[in-house]
Amino acid sequence: MRNVPTCLNCARKLVSPRSTRKIGKYSPLGDYLTRRQRPISYVTLSFAEIEKIIGDNLPFSAFEHQHWWGNAASRAQAKAWLNAGWIVHDVNLDDKTVIFKKVREPDVKLDREREKDTAVSVKKTFQPPKLRKPRRRIPSKTKMAMTMARLKNVERRKRSMKKYRGKFKPKPAFEKRLYRSEETPDKQD
Predict the structure, then answer these.
(1) What is the DSSP letter of 37?
(2) How confident is the model at residue 149, as a pLDDT?
């Protein structure tokens, strides 16, 4: 592969591309069931074993309610074993065991799609995003007229001011009134 500069996000996608399936809390259980050997059609697991597989505690409702173990595809825990090709055959809340039954072979298509994604992403070269030109806002006619009027006023003021040579600058009127040299303030006792 050529030495093509890539940004960090592109490099991350090349090294570890995103898989097509989402990883959830119960996906390790689905992976465990997927790895079971072909002749096995039933697997019995205790609640403790399931907690060990998923690496987390089961919720309280899993210990108390039979319907938590239902095969409804709308639930996160059921998606894990349904996608792996298994269903819950029987649940014993007293013994805290679950019997899973194999109904079909799991979809291996996900791994093939992932390989295709990585092969395609390796062939692509990095292209930086196109720079957008900043959108130039056109000021309104009112703002333009006000700006022109201010500029004309500044020019008029400059023309009307007297020009003095050198550093001499006359004192403003209020300073003349404050510091008249001929008048001395009267002392009041």
Answers:
(1) -
(2) 95
In this prediction, residue 98 carries a pLDDT of 92
Residue 96 DSSP class = T
Q: Which residues pair with 86 in a beta bridge?
A: 102
Dihedral sign (CA 45, 46, 47, 51): negative
For residues 114 and 19, is the Cβ–Cβ distance under 8 A?
yes
DSSP notation for 97-161: EEEEEE-SPPP-HHHHHHHHHHHHHHHSPP-PPPPPPPPPPPPPHHHHHHHHHHHHHHHHHHHHS
19 or 156, which is more confident: 156
Q: Taking 50 as the threshold, does the pLDDT of residue 20 lie above it?
A: no
pTM: 0.46
Structure tokens belonging to residue 110? 């996900």
Find, among 77, 88, 79, 85, the residue nearest to 34 by Cα: 85
CA distance 39 to 42: 9
